[in-house]
Design goal:
Distance between the termini of chain A: 13 Å
Number of helices of chain B: 5
Order of helices and strands of chain B: EHEEHEEHEHEEHE
Strand content of chain B: 25-35%
Oligomer: heterodimer
Number of domains of chain B: 2
Number of domains of chain A: 1
Low-confidence stretches of chain B: none
Structural class of chain A: mainly alpha
Radius of gyration of chain B: 21 Å
Number of strands of chain B: 9
Number of strands of chain A: 2
Helix content of chain A: 40-55%
Shape of chain B: globular
Strand content of chain A: 5-15%
Low-confidence stretches of chain A: 1-16, 46-69
Chain lengths: 69, 222
């Protein structure tokens, strides 16, 4: 992942959440659909969307985003 | 054995399943790659991101159509039956986008989201309430207008066919533009560099380019 920003101020917490939310959005709402016998529900979807930077702070995506700050 | 669908690949590429610890269920032209799973409980963030890691591992080896997270089949026979029903669609989609990559381009507002629903204000009544609502509506329209400008700027700079770009403006309070671009593997570096150059010239947003990913957004027709 790359980030642009030059000499602008450091990114705010909500900006750091953005990359992972974009990925989660694709995993949950895009991609081919082949209807199965069951569909796994995802626990705490709201949590996933709202608290990503905390819950998933070890994920590479966020780690790289943090390194760019 | 219960199977969680991961991706669709060409039948000739189904052999990679062994290396990745996946199960391959093949039709005549395409194959479904799936993982053994336990479907009796809700998935967590870990399973969701594991899904992405598995798809990326497939995508790094062969062209593929990533599966939306969550489809579980009771056994290989059920999965094969579903696959064969859709095989013509998947064969066509795989030929169209399977060997291309998705770049996710996100332009996030740099300010504190004055239009966000969570920007709570003290309760007020009457004229002040209406004026505040009007001001908020104006800010939202201004943001939408600005987001449209950003989209136009990005599209103007990227040498991509319209069919290979999809975008949403203001999908969430923090985000001005969420865009997906479908590129060849050879185009990833140059396209990312172009986006970075444009993003650096946009003072009110932070531009993040993610990928290359499997073509999530383009795997299905809209």
């Amino acid at each position: 992942m790359t980030t642009t920003g030059g000499r602008r101020p450091p990114r705010t917490p909500h900006e750091l959440d953005v990359p992972l939310v974009e990925l989660v959005d694709r995993l949950l709402s895009r991609g081919v659909v082949l209807t199965g016998e069951l569909t796994i529900s995802v626990s705490g979807v709201d949590l996933i969307y709202l608290g990503l930077s905390v819950v998933l702070s070890s994920v590479d995506t966020i780690r790289r985003a943090g390194a760019d700050v | 054995m219960t199977l969680l669908l991961r991706a669709i690949v060409a039948a000739d590429d189904a052999g990679i399943a062994t290396d990745l610890g996946l199960h391959a269920v093949a039709g005549a032209h395409v194959a479904a790659l799936a993982s053994a799973c336990e479907a009796t409980r809700a998935a967590t963030e870990t399973e969701l991101l594991d899904h992405h890691r598995v798809i990326q591992a497939v995508f790094e080896r062969v062209g593929c159509l990533p599966a939306r997270f969550g489809s579980v089949f009771l056994d290989e026979n059920v999965l094969r039956a579903r696959l064969i029903e859709r095989e013509p669609d998947f064969t066509a989609a795989l030929a169209r986008v399977g060997h291309r990559c998705e770049l996710a381009i996100t332009c996030a507002w740099r300010d504190d989201n004055p239009t966000a629903a969570t920007a709570v204000v003290p309760a007020i009544r009457g004229r002040a309430y209406l004026e505040r609502g009007l001001a908020r509506s104006r800010r939202e329209r201004e943001r939408e207008r600005r987001a449209d400008e950003i989209v136009a700027r990005l599209l103007g700079e990227l040498p991509l066919e319209p069919a290979f770009v999809r975008h949403r403006t203001c999908p969430r309070p923090a985000v001005a533009v969420s865009m997906s671009a479908l590129v060849t593997r050879d185009e990833v570096e140059e396209t990312s560099s172009r986006i970075e150059r444009v993003g650096a010239q946009l003072p009110d947003v932070t531009t993040v380019v993610q990928g290359p990913w499997a073509p999530y957004t383009f795997a299905v027709s809209e």
